[in-house]
Amino acid sequence: MEELIQISPGIDPHGASSGQTGKEQQAAGVGILLQIMMLVLSFVLGHVLRRHKFYYLPEASASLLIGLIVGGLANISNTETSIRAWFNFHEEFFFLFLLPPIIFQSGFSLAPKPFFSNFGAIVTFAIGGTFIASMVTGVLVYLGGLMFLMYKLPFVECLMFGALISATDPVTVLSIFQELGTDVNLYALVFGESVLNDAMAISLYRTMSLVRSNASSEHNFFMLVVRFLETFVGSMSAGVGVGFISALLFKYAGLDIDNLQNLESCLFVLFPYFSYMLAEGLGLSGIVSILFTGIVMKHYAFSNLSESSQRFVSAFFHLISSLAETFVFIYMGFDIAMEQHSWSHIGFIFFSILFIIIARAANVFSCAYLVNLARPAHRKIPLKHQKALWYSGLRGAMAFALALQSIHDLPEGHGQTIFTATTAIVVLTVLLIGGSTGTMLEALQVVGDSHDGSLGETYSLPENLERNHTYIAPTYDVESSSGNKFKMKLKELHNTASFSALDKNYLTPFFTSNNGDVDDDFDGPTPPSSRGNGFHRYG
Amino acid sequence: MEELIQISPGIDPHGASSGQTGKEQQAAGVGILLQIMMLVLSFVLGHVLRRHKFYYLPEASASLLIGLIVGGLANISNTETSIRAWFNFHEEFFFLFLLPPIIFQSGFSLAPKPFFSNFGAIVTFAIGGTFIASMVTGVLVYLGGLMFLMYKLPFVECLMFGALISATDPVTVLSIFQELGTDVNLYALVFGESVLNDAMAISLYRTMSLVRSNASSEHNFFMLVVRFLETFVGSMSAGVGVGFISALLFKYAGLDIDNLQNLESCLFVLFPYFSYMLAEGLGLSGIVSILFTGIVMKHYAFSNLSESSQRFVSAFFHLISSLAETFVFIYMGFDIAMEQHSWSHIGFIFFSILFIIIARAANVFSCAYLVNLARPAHRKIPLKHQKALWYSGLRGAMAFALALQSIHDLPEGHGQTIFTATTAIVVLTVLLIGGSTGTMLEALQVVGDSHDGSLGETYSLPENLERNHTYIAPTYDVESSSGNKFKMKLKELHNTASFSALDKNYLTPFFTSNNGDVDDDFDGPTPPSSRGNGFHRYG
C-alpha cells in the first residue's frame, strides 16, 4: 500500500506528468479487481467442491492454489510493478485488518462449555507444548547444521525459526472438522491450541529476536515465562473487560427498541476491534484479547440485542470472517508465487519438515501425558485424539507473516532461507494435511464420535454445537419448566461447578437483561415484546 | 499508512533495536483505538441529538467537530508522530475504501422513479452547472487576484481551484432532508446533482492540471466535453452491466435455497466493489459506475436473493456506509486540526467564499432556467426548489481530498493556499449550512411538501420513498389483482413511458426470478416457498 502516493478516480487523460497519478490509480483498480475476482472464484469453487463432498481440496487449499496459479501467471507475463504492489503480503495489513475478524469469529461462534472444560489442557498444549516444539525444532535444526545435513544457522536464529514455525493454523483443519463433525472435546482442543499458540509463538519469536540483538542480558528463562503470563493474563482481562462493558452498554442503553437497529449494530461491530486495538496499544496481545471479547460478547452482550440485530450481527461476523479467511489464503498464495525464493537449500526444507513432525509429536504426546496425569480416568485424552491433534498441526498465515518479518530481522540471508523453508512448509502442510484430514479423521474413527455429545454431518458446527450441547443462551430458556430448571441447575453445578454457578447466579443476571431463571423482574429497560421489529424498515 | 513498516502483535519487550517494531505496532493500536472511540462517540452523540430533535448540529457536523477537537488536543499535547501518521488523511484510502460504500448505498437506497424522471435536469445541473460554477469561480478568483483583493494565482490554478471547490457533498444535507422529509423531486435533484458533480469536478480538475503541465496541446474545449461524456457513458454502462450480470447470477445460481445465505451475501457484497474497481481499472469513473450498479442491483438482483439475505444485505450496506460516512468527517476534522495551514491569506478565504456563493447561484438559476424551458408547465422546477438547491451546496470530503492532492500538484505554495481555503470552506459550509438546512427548508416551506408525493417526518426517507411512492419492488406486487394491474400499467406507461414499459415487460421478467405480472411460469429454479429459511442457523 505504501507504493501508492496519490490515487483518485476520474478520467485518466494519458498525460505525461499528471498521468502518473492516473496510472497509479488504474493500477490500484486492476489490482483490487483481480483480488475480488479471485475471491469470487474461491467462493464459487469452494461451494462446488463442498456440494460434491470432495474433501481432498478444502476451501482454504483451493484459495491457496488459486493464489499460486494467478501469481505464477502474473510472474510469467510481465505485470506492472504498480499492480504487483497490491499483492505483496503486508504484515501490518494481515495483523491489523485480516486477523482480527477471523479470531473474533472463532470466539464468537465457540461453544464455551467444551472450551472451558478443556481450558487446562488447552493452555498446557498452547504454552508448554509450543515452548517444547519451538525448542525441539530449534535444537534439531542447529544440530542438523552442525552435522552438515543442512544449511547452518546460528543457534538463536534456529530458535527463532523454531518459534515461528510452531504457530499452527486454525482455519483449514477446523473447517473440515466442522463439515465432517467430530468430538466436541477434540474440536475444542485443536481450536483452542491453534488460537492460543499463535500468541505464544509470536512472543517467543520476539524474545529470541531480542536475545539475538543482545539487548536483554537480564531476560533469563524465568523472566520470559513471567512476561508471557503477564501478557496472557493482561490480554485476557482486557478482552473480558471490553466484553462486559459492551454487555452493560447494550443492557442499559435501550437501543433494542425504536428501530435503532443500525446504531445498535454499528456499536456492536466496533467493540471487538476496540478490544483488539486496546490490547495492542497497551503492548499486549490483540489476538488473545479479541478471542475472549468474542466469547464474552456472545455469552452476555449478544442476548441484550434486539432479535433482528442478533440475526444481523451473527451473519455479519460470519461474512466478514469468511471474506478475511479466504482472502488470507489467496493473498499468501499470490505472494508465494511472486516472491524471490532461495531454493539452493533444498536440504534445509526437507530436514525442517522432518524436524517439525518430530517436534509436534514431542509437544502433543508429552503434554497429553501431563494432562492425563492430572485428569480423572473418565476424562483422559484418548490416544486417537492425541494422534488427531498431532496430525492437525498445519502451518498457515501466522508462520508466513512471521517468516516475512524475519527477512527484515535477519539480513544476512538467514532470513531468506527461513522464509523459503516456511513458505514450502505452509504450502505442503495446507495442501497435504488439509486434503487428508477427512481420511485421517475417518481412519482414527473420530468422525461423528459420541464421546461427549456428537454432531451429525452438518455444514455449520459451531451453531449446532451450541444447540446439541447443554449450553443454551440465556435468552432462550425462559420456556423450560421450573422442575427441569432445578435439575439442569443441579447437573450444571455438578459438571463444571464453580464457573457455571457463578455465571448462572451472578454474571448472567447482571450482564443480560433477560436471565430467565431466578428473577424476571430484574429486567433491563427493554420489554422483550418490543424485540424483533427492527428489520422492517429494510427490504 | 506508509510510515508503518513492520507491525505485529504480541509482547513489546521494551528492547532497543527490536523494540522499534513493537513501538510502531503500539502506535498503530493507539491510533486505531482513538479512531474507534471517536466513531463510537459520534454515533452516540448523533443519536442523542436526533432523539432531542436538535437539527442545528447534524451527525456529520458533530463528527467533524469531534475530529477537530481531538485533533486540536493531539496538536497541543505532543503526540508521537507514529500515532499521528494514522490520522493523516490519505487520499487513496478515501477514494478506494471510504467513498465506494457511501456512493453505493446512495444508489441502493435510491427511489429510482424520481431520479429517472428528473434525469435530464440532474445531468444538466451536474455537467453544465458544475462547468459553469467552476469557470465562474475560477475567473472571479483570477480577477480578484488581478485587482489585489486577494492572493494572486495564475489563471490555470484558478480554474483548478474552481473545479475542486465545485464538488458538493451529498452526505450532510441529505441526512437532514431525510429526517425532515421533503419533496421527492427536490431530494432527487439535490442527491443526483451532488453525486454526479463529484465525477465532473474530478474530471475538470484533472484536465486543468493537465493543461497546466502543458502536456495537452490537442485538448481543446470540444475534446474536453467529448472525453467527459465518454467517461460518463462508459462508467454508466460498466455499472449497469455489472448490475445486470449480478442479477442473472443470483437468478440462476440457485443460492437462495439450501442455507447458503453466507455464500449468497458474500457474492452480493463483492459485486459493487467489483464494479468500482472495474471502472477505475479501465480509467473510467468508479463513482458513476458504482452508483448505477447500486440502482440496478437494488431493482433487479436484490429480488433474486432469499428473504433473509435481502434483510441482511440491506442492513449490511446501511451499516458499512454509516461507518464510512461518519469516519470521513472525523478523519477530515482530525486532519484539518493537524495539518499546516497558511493563514496569511485570509482575504483569499473570504473572497473565495463570496465567489463560490455567486458561482453556485449562476449554476443553479441558469440551469434551472434551461430545464424549465424544456419542461411542460406542470413539471417546472419552482423557485423555492431552486433556492433550496442553491443553499444545499455545501462542500465536503471530495473537495477536501482534491485540495490535498493540489498540494502535491502545485508545489510553489499555491497548493497550500488552495488547501487552506478549501479547508476553511469545508468547515464553514458543513457547520453553517448543515446546521441551518432545517430552518431553511422550513422557511422555504418545502418540508413535508405534497407536490408529488410527500413524506412524513420519519427517520428513513429512502425506504419510505419507495413505499409511499408508486415504485414497488417487483417481488412484492404479486398480490395485486389483475384489474388493478392493468390500470397501474396504463398509468405507468403514461407517466414515464418508455423506460417503465421496457422495465416491466422485458427487464424485470428477464433479470428477476419473480416478475409477478405476466407469466409466473417464467420462473427461476427457485420456488418462492423456499425463501426465508436461511437465517435460522444464526441466532
**Major sheet size, sense and barrel closure of chain A:** none
Mean pLDDT of chain A: 76
Q: How many strands appear in the DSSP assignment of chain A?
A: 0
Question: What portion of residues of chain A is helical?
Answer: 55-70%
How large is the count of helical segments of chain A?
A: 20
Termini separation of chain A comes to: 37 Å
In short:
Chains A, B: Keywords: Antiport, Ion transport, Membrane, Potassium, Potassium transport, Sodium, Sodium transport, Transmembrane, Transmembrane helix, Transport. By secondary structure, the first copy, chain A, is mostly helical.
Question: What does it look like?
Answer:
Chain A has 20 helices and no strands. Chain A has 539 residues and is mainly alpha-helical. In chain A, helix 1 packs antiparallel against helix 2 (59-76) and helix 4 (91-108) packs parallel to helix 12. Chain A is globular, with a radius of gyration of 24 Å. The two termini of chain A are 37 Å apart. The relative contact order of chain A is 0.14. Residues 1-19, 449-483 and 515-539 of chain A have low confidence and may be disordered. At the A-B interface, helix 1, helix 4, helix 9, helix 10 and helix 11 of A face helix 1, helix 4, helix 9, helix 10 and helix 11 of B. Chains A, B: Keywords: Antiport, Ion transport, Membrane, Potassium, Potassium transport, Sodium, Sodium transport, Transmembrane, Transmembrane helix, Transport. Chains A, B: Residues 1-22, 517-539 are annotated as: Disordered. Chains A, B: It catalyses: K(+)(in) + H(+)(out) = K(+)(out) + H(+)(in); Na(+)(in) + H(+)(out) = Na(+)(out) + H(+)(in). Chains A, B: This is Sodium/hydrogen exchanger. Chains A, B: Its main location: membrane.
